[in-house]
C-alpha cells in the first residue's frame, strides 16, 4: 500500500466519524429500496424526457458510488449495483442540510441510497432528482482506479471483490457461468434426469486417475479423501434403480496448477441406463452446441485468435487415426503399429518423445496422442477407441477388446468431456482394479484402488449404462473467451501472501 493510499484511508476514517456525528448509523442493517439500479435502467432507459416528466416516477435505489461531480450548490453522483449505472442529481436546498452535509463526506466506493423522481438531464441522461440521501456503508479502502481498473493478475485473483468492483467484464464472465450451469440443469431436467448429491469425502480415493487430498475424521478415526470424481457413487444409484442421474459436483485433485488446472474444479457427471457411449456422444454435441448459442448468441466464437465453429456435426477420429493424421513425418505409421508395444517404443524414439520404459501399449499410444494430436484439436473434435489400459471403468469393444467404447471431446486443444459405455461385469471390474493396483505398486500414484463395495453393487446387476463427465470450468473458459481457468473461478487457489 502506498503512502498516498494510507493518507486516503485516514481521511476516509475521519469522514466516517463525521457521518456518525451527523446522526447516521455507520453500518445500518438494511435499506428498503423499491428497485435496483439495473431494474430502473432497464425499465426506463427508452422513455423520453416528456414521458418521465408526466409519470413523475418515484424510486428509492441503493448502489456504490462510481463518480462524484460537485458544481456549487448542486452535484451529480454516479452509482451502480455492479451491473448498470445510474445518476443522482441533488441540490443543497432540496435535499436538506443533513443530506447535503452527508454528500460532502462521501467518497468513491461508498454505498448510499437515494430517493427521488426519475427525469432526464439536459444532456439526456437518466437520473434521480434526489429528495433524500442515505448512508449505507463507508469504503475505508479506496476502490481501484475507475479508468485504469485492476490489472495485476495476482491481485485480481486474491481480491476478487475488488476485481468485480473495478472490472465490469469480469462480472459478466461469472453471470455467463451461472447461465451455463442453469442451462445445463434445464437440459437434463427436460430429459427425465434427476439431480443428486453424492459424498465429497470418501473412504477411498477412486472414480478417476488422480492424486487425492487426504484428511482424517476424528470421531470415526478413519482416513478420508476429498473426492476426485463422483462416478462410482452415481453408478451405485443406477444399480439402485435411478435410470438417469446427474450431478454438478466439486472435485478435488492434488496435482499441479496450470491455465487448464485448478486443485478444486466443477464437473458435470451424468449416467443413463440402457444406453451406450454413442448416444451420449450425440447428446454432448447437442448440449455444448446449445450452450454456445445461448451464451454467445451464435455458432462461431473467437478464442485465442482462432475462430471456433460449433456448427454440427463435429469431427470424429479414433485415437490412432488422430495420431496418424498429425504424424510429423511423411511416412506415417499403420493402425496396427500403434497398438504393438515394440513398434510404439520405436515410434516414440523416432520422434524423440520421452517415455517410461515400464509403459504399456495403451499408455504409449496415449502419450503419442497427447504430444502429436492434442495441440491441433482446436475445432470441436471427438476422439474414440481408447486403449483398455487407459480406461479401467469402460466396457471393452466387442469388435476389438484391446480398445474400449469411449470418447473424449476436445475444443481449443483442451479435453472438455469424457464419456463411455460403463463396465458392468463385476468379475471384469475386479480384474481391471487389480491391474490398476499393480500399476500403483510400480509407483503410479494416480492408479485406482479396489473398491470392494462398488464391486458388490455391480453384483446386484447394473443395466447397460453410459456415463460422462464434462468440465464446466473449461466450457466456461471457451464460451467467455478466457485463457486461464482462474478467470472463470471466483476464488482460485494461490500460494499464501508473504
Short description:
By secondary structure, the protein is of the alpha+beta class.
> What fraction, in percent, of the residue positions are helical?
25-40%
Find the CATH topology of the largest domain: BirA Bifunctional Protein, domain 2
Mean pLDDT: 94
- CATH homology superfamily name of the largest domain: Bira Bifunctional Protein, Domain 2
Characterize the biggest β-sheet: 8 strands, mixed
| Number of DSSP helical runs | 16
Strand line-up in the sheet with most strands: 6-10-11-18-17-16-15-14
Provide the number of structural domains: 2
Main CATH class of the largest domain: Alpha Beta
CATH architecture of the largest domain: 2-Layer Sandwich
Rg computed from alpha carbons, rounded to a whole number of angstroms:
29 Å
Class from helix and strand fractions? alpha+beta
Write down how many β-strands occur, each being a DSSP E stretch of 2 or more residues.
18
Regarding quaternary structure, what we see is single chain
**Amount of beta strand:** 25-35%
- The geometry reads as elongated
Amino acid at each position: 500500500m502506498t503512502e498516498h493510499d494510507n493518507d486516503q484511508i485516514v481521511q476516509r476514517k475521519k469522514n466516517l466519524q463525521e457521518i456518525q456525528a451527523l446522526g447516521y448509523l455507520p453500518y445500518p442493517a438494511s435499506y428498503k429500496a423499491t428497485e435496483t439500479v439495473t431494474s430502473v435502467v432497464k425499465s426506463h432507459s427508452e422513455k423520453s424526457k416528456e414521458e418521465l416528466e408526466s409519470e413523475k416516477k418515484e424510486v428509492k435505489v441503493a448502489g456504490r458510488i462510481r463518480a462524484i461531480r460537485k458544481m456549487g450548490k448542486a452535484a451529480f453522483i454516479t452509482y451502480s449495483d455492479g451491473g448498470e449505472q445510474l445518476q443522482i442529481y441533488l441540490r443543497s436546498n432540496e435535499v436538506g442540510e443533513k443530506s447535503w452535509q452527508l454528500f460532502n463526506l462521501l467518497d468513491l466506493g461508498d454505498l448510499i441510497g437515494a430517493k427521488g423522481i426519475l427525469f432526464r438531464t439536459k444532456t439526456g441522461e437518466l437520473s434521480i432528482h434526489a429528495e433524500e440521501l442515505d448512508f449505507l456503508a463507508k469504503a475505508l479502502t479506496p476502490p481501484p482506479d475507475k479508468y485504469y481498473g485492476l490489472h495485476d493478475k495476482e491481485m485480481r485473483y486474491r481480491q476478487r471483490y475488488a476485481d468485480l468492483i473495478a472490472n465490469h467484464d469480469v462480472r459478466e464472465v461469472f453471470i455467463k457461468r451461472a447461465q451455463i450451469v442453469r442451462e445445463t440443469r434445464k437440459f437434463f431436467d427436460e430429459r427425465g434426469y434427476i439431480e443428486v448429491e453424492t459424498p465429497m469425502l470418501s473412504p477411498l480415493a477412486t472414480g478417476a486417475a488422480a492424486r487425492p487430498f487426504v484428511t482424517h475424521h476424528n470421531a470415526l478415526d478413519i482416513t478420508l479423501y476429498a473426492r476426485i470424481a463422483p462416478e462410482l457413487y452415481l453408478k451405485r444409484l443406477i444399480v439402485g434403480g435411478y435410470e438417469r442421474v446427474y450431478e454438478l459436483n466439486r472435485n478435488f485433485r492434488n496435482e499441479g496448477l496450470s491455465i487448464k488446472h485448478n486443485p478444486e474444479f466443477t464437473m458435470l457427471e451424468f449416467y443413463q441406463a440402457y444406453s451406450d457411449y454413442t448416444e451420449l456422444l450425440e447428446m454432448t454435441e447437442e448440449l455444448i452446441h446449445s450452450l454456445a448459442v445461448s451464451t454467445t448468441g451464435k455458432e462461431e466464437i473467437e478464442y485465442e485468435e482462432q475462430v471456433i465453429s460449433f456448427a454440427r456435426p463435429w469431427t470424429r477420429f479414433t485415437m490412432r487415426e488422430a495420431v496418424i493424421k498429425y504424424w510429423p513425418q511423411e511416412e506415417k505409421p499403420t493402425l496396427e503399429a500403434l497398438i504393438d508395444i515394440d513398434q510404439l517404443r520405436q515410434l516414440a524414439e523416432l520422434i524423440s518423445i520421452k517415455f517410461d520404459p515400464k509403459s504399456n501399449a495403451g499408455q504409449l499410444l496415449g502419450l503419442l496422442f497427447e504430444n502429436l494430436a492434442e495441440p491441433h484439436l482446436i475445432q470441436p473434435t471427438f476422439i474414440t477407441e481408447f486403449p483398455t489400459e487407459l480406461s479401467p471403468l469402460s466396457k471393452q469393444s466387442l469388435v476389438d477388446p484391446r480398445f474400449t467404447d469411449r470418447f473424449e471431446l476436445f475444443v481449443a486443444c483442451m479435453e472438455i468431456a469424457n464419456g463411455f459405455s460403463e463396465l458392468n461385469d463385476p468379475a471384469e471390474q475386479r480384474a481391471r482394479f487389480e491391474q490398476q493396483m499393480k500399476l500403483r505398486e510400480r509407483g503410479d500414484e494416480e492408479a485406482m484402488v479396489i473398491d470392494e463395495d462398488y464391486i458388490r453393487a455391480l453384483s446386484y446387476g447394473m443395466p447397460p449404462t453410459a456415463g460422462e463427465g464434462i468440465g464446466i470450468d473449461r466450457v466456461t473458459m471457451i464460451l467467455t473467451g478466457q485463457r486461464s481457468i482462474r478467470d472463470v473461478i471466483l476464488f482460485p487457489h494461490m500460494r499464501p501472501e508473504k
